[in-house]
Amino acid sequence: MLVNYHTHTWRCNHAEPDERAYIEAAIAAGVKVLGFSDHTPYPFPPEQHSWFRMSVEEAPRYFRLIRRLRDEYADRIEIHVGVEAEYYPAYFPAMVELLRQNGCEYMLLGQHFLFNEEKPEYGSAAATDDPARLRQYVDQTIEGMATGLFTYLAHPDLIHFTGDEAAYRLHMRRLCRAARELDVPLELNLLGFHDNRHYPARRFWELAAEEGNRTVLGWDAHTAASFGWRSLEDRGRRLLADLGLTPEERVPLRSIMGK
């Protein structure tokens, strides 16, 4: 892969430290464009604590450091700084304003939790056979894409639905169709392969192929070693090729500054 926009840092509390190590590993792997997109800070009320994202207080340091590294490595690799964010209606405008104040270049949509993340059981990746939970995931993800602020949808098959297959196809087709109509690419997430997760899910990508969605590969890097996953990249490309899909090597970054 020449381009990866999905890269985390230690600030999310579940990734390796040292941003410079990520950059050096990406250069060694032949990456030409590297985007850092750590889990966004969200201005939640004081009683609502999120364990897997950077704090609001850490955000200025994150953006300053990546910009400094961007300038330092400008003759070796193109670097961008953004975030991976959920769409939470109650807090989304304040979150976007925080990012704008800090010079965020782009956002990836990754709907890890539902509603406004008030409770841990709202996690999207938890196995569920409840069609209402599936419907909420799709509805909320579509609402996020409709803001026009997200460059692409990360791991769109994150929802771990174990219930009725007809319900899965109905709602996930709605997601694919909305992504196509809104011109939001879908990411085949290579970390899912590496960790033997329930995604990438072939049944989802079959729907994406039927709907003619734009696609992109993403390492979802939480370690510098992620950039060496050539066999997983090949596996992802084969899956898409089997279904008649060709991932785009580079997608335009959607600025969050103008809306």
Description of the structure:
This protein is α/β, with parallel strands linked by helices. It has one domain (3-242): Metal-dependent hydrolases (TIM Barrel, Alpha-Beta Barrel), CATH 3.20.20. Helix content is 37%, strand content 12%. It is built from eight helices and seven strands. The strands form two sheets. It has a five-stranded parallel sheet with strand order 1-2-3-4-5. Helix 4 (131-146) runs parallel beside helix 5 (165-182). The chain is globular, with a radius of gyration of 17 Å. The model has no long low-confidence stretch (mean pLDDT 96).
DSSP, total strands? 7
CATH superfamily: Metal-dependent hydrolases
| Alpha plus pi helix count | 8
Output the CATH topology: TIM Barrel
Report the top-level CATH class. Alpha Beta
Mean pLDDT: 96
Radius of gyration: 17 Å
What's the number of domains? 1
Strand order of the largest sheet: 1-2-3-4-5
Largest sheet: 5 strands, parallel
Comma- or semicolon-separated keywords:
259 residues; 8 helices; alpha/beta; TIM Barrel; two-stranded parallel sheet
Produce the secondary structure layout.
Layout lengths: L2 E2 L14 H10 L4 E7 L19 H14 L5 E8 L6 H10 L5 E3 L21 H16 L3 E4 L11 H18 L3 E4 H5 L7 H10 L3 E4 L11 H13 L17
Parallel strand pairs: 1-2, 2-3, 3-4, 4-5, 6-7
Helix pairs in contact: 4-5, 5-7
Question: Summarize this, please?
Answer:
The chain has 259 residues and is an alpha/beta fold. It has helices at residues 19-28, 59-72, 92-101, 131-146, 165-182, 190-194, 202-211, 230-242; strands spanning 3-4, 33-39, 78-85, 107-109, 150-153, 186-189, 215-218.
